[in-house]
């Protein structure tokens, strides 16, 4: 339950940009990463957008200037160069920092509400509306009062 | 409308109120959770798993490397710190008091620091550590799942990570979490 509530809270917080105290050393001028080709750069950018900065928590690895994000970006590029596929890069980070690093958590028993909750709410709404509409049409409808002037 | 509403109908009438109350409760729970000062701490997936293997240089002895195997045999407390980290200043006296009890080896993990700054910091505030390991580029820190400082790990004699604390260690944390766990580990051995 705590996980679910925390997730909801994280969602709410992510909607507003909350200033988070920087515990990590921030490096104003990190050496920029150099890419071998545009394909590698594109893959890298797509990947870091899906990974959450473990320090700032409401930013992706791509957005954050925290020192740890700089380090992790470097590590991600290094893993790509080692020939790891996207899933393996994510696994590497999950093994060290937990599933928190994934913006799209894996479908597991403790995340199913997160994944399917919205669909369930939608379904419940649809059932509710169906019941109400059926009930209304089941009752004798009030005949339109033609004598009334509008 | 015709006559009195059927019982199911009156339940339906209260449904929106129930939903609003439910939503309110959810938001209240969220606010309540957000007051927890530890809400941003990440649980470490490494607890119960072997500590990552490393061979790191020692701050005070140029050229000496200490590996994870060298530290086997007895538990140790690994404290991540840096001279750039204000919270490390806060926990320093607490850590010093604990280190003086000589309960376990307290090992410093100097993370992303400058060599001279680290030495100066220890000279100024005192060195509570049995040994200070150095990770200037932060490469090994990723294997430990370190994302800030201070962070503190307890590794047992078999090299298994048993505990992690994010943020400054306090007397209460040592008394309520660390010492009971050490007792358990020692009894088991």
TrEMBL record, chain A:
Q: Its GO CC terms?
A: plasma membrane
List, alphabetically, the Gene3D superfamilies matched. Answer: Cytochrome C biogenesis protein (1.10.8.640)
Q: Which regions span the lipid bilayer?
A: 112-133
Specify the CcmH/CycL/Ccl2/NrfF N-terminal domain's residue ranges. 18-140
- Can you tell me which residues the record assigns to a coiled coil? none
Q: Does the keyword Transcription apply?
A: no
Leader peptide range in chain numbering: 1-24
Its BP terms in the Gene Ontology are: cytochrome complex assembly
**UniProt KW Kinase keyword:** no
Q: Which keywords does UniProt give here?
A: Cytochrome c-type biogenesis, Heme, Iron, Membrane, Metal-binding, Signal, Transmembrane, Transmembrane helix
- GO molecular function annotation: metal ion binding
**Role according to the record:** Possible subunit of a heme lyase.
Q: What family does the Swiss-Prot or TrEMBL record give for this protein?
A: Belongs to the CcmH/CycL/Ccl2/NrfF family.
Query: What's the protein here called?
Result: Cytochrome c-type biogenesis protein
Q: Which organism is it from?
A: Marilutibacter alkalisoli
UniProtKB/TrEMBL annotation, chain B:
Name the predominant localization.
membrane
List residues of the Thioredoxin domain: 45-189
Gene Ontology CC terms, in alphabetical order: outer membrane-bounded periplasmic space; plasma membrane
Topology in the membrane? Single-pass membrane protein
**Localization (cell):** Cell inner membrane
* GO terms classed as biological process: cytochrome complex assembly
Q: Which InterPro entries does the UniProt entry name for this protein?
A: Periplasmic_diS_OxRdtase_DsbE, Redoxin, Thioredoxin-like_sf, Thioredoxin_domain, Thioredoxin_ResA/DsbE_sf
Keywords (alphabetical) are:
Cytochrome c-type biogenesis, Disulfide bond, Membrane, Redox-active center, Transmembrane, Transmembrane helix
The residues that cross the membrane are 12-33
Q: Name one Pfam family in it.
A: Redoxin
A single Gene Ontology MF term assigned here is: disulfide oxidoreductase activity
Q: Which family does it belong to?
A: Belongs to the thioredoxin family. DsbE subfamily.
Q: Protein name, please?
A: DsbE family thiol:disulfide interchange protein
Q: Which organism is it from?
A: Marilutibacter alkalisoli
User: In the record, what lineage is assigned to the organism producing the protein?
Assistant: Bacteria, Pseudomonadati, Pseudomonadota, Gammaproteobacteria, Lysobacterales
